[in-house]
Design goal:
By secondary structure, the chain is of the alpha+beta class. The chain is built from two helices and three strands; from the N terminus they run αβββα. It has a domain of 42 residues. Helix 1 packs parallel to helix 2. The longest helix has 14 residues.
Amino acid sequence: MKEDDEDRQISMARAYVVFNEAQIDGLVQVPVQVGVQDVYPEAIAGRFIKTTGAEIRYGGNKACYIPSQDCSGVMRCATVSRPFLHGTLLCEAARA
């Protein structure tokens, strides 16, 4: 790059083609066995969050990390849906 050249930003678009297996001639079908178990995402998320050791304080009206106190704050449980709460808790635990 020359000294008088300016940095410039160039946008780039990518395209991907996705095939349905029914569209592929001669594809050998391999049977896949999937075990179905009772999965409780909230329980799994709760255990994971506890093992991080992150200090999480409930209250306020938004989720945030408080660097001066090295803790995360999340809104009260009653104000948000359970899946949203666990997603927020996972995010905040990752920040701590």
